[in-house]
């Protein structure tokens, strides 16, 4: 009996030792749809958040924010970012293909507690320019439109007529009048039809849910004359056929608000659009 007690005690000690080597917390894992307290504001394009028991640095996804040392707008930009972050106290982050930059910073779309999308507001006020770095192209078309509008309003950095964009942000007119785009929100389906007499290579074209800020990128897809394809939000038993594609695992089209959709080719020409 004494030996059995001794063995039992040893087993308990071994289990305790093993447990001590396991992670003590999963609170340091970065998650979307989670509010994180604000730490220090480091400069105009980065700030800290508190994640569990450590600090992470965050920069604004797809933005070239006006430098804090810029003589005209550096100070105004810094004041605006500071005011917004301090007022919110916490932020929620969402990401594109790459969560981190090479230097380890989180690159994110920053959402405030009053539902402000801080990335979009910085573009809208002319405190930042668009800076798309592949493969993170999720926000490209939405941000291009916002930057174009700010530029047209001569606001922020765009008050200087000589200021240039980081890239060509022109959104060109529809090239193919025979391509139609329709959305069935109830079925969570986008349908593209080729009404022309020639085949169309959709490879690397982009279908954009404007309201939901979501982008679907086609892989190797050839659309023959008269053919149509359907892009469902997610795979269901009713959607399984040769001409069906799948956005992901979540709903894309919001039934509670008005939606719009846009189809772009590889030259970022607006090919077709749909609005409620």
What does this molecule look like?
The chain is built from 4 helices and 17 strands. The strands form 5 sheets. Strands 1-2-3-6-5 form a 5-stranded mixed barrel. Mean pLDDT is 84; it is low at 1-5, 11-26 and 169-173. It is globular. Strand 2 (46-51) and strand 3 form a beta hairpin. 20% of the residues lie in helices and 30% in strands. It is of the alpha+beta class.
Structure characteristics:
single chain, 276 residues, alpha+beta, 5-stranded mixed β-barrel, 4-stranded mixed sheet, 30% strand, globular, disordered N terminus
Task: Describe what is shown at a glance.
This protein has 276 residues and is α+β, with helices and mostly antiparallel strands. It has helices at residues 2-20, 74-88, 118-124, 140-152, and strands spanning 35-43, 46-51, 54-60, 63-65, 90-94, 106-112, 128-130, 179-184, 189-194, 200-201, 206-209, 214-217, 222-223, 228-232, 244-246, 260-264, 270-275.
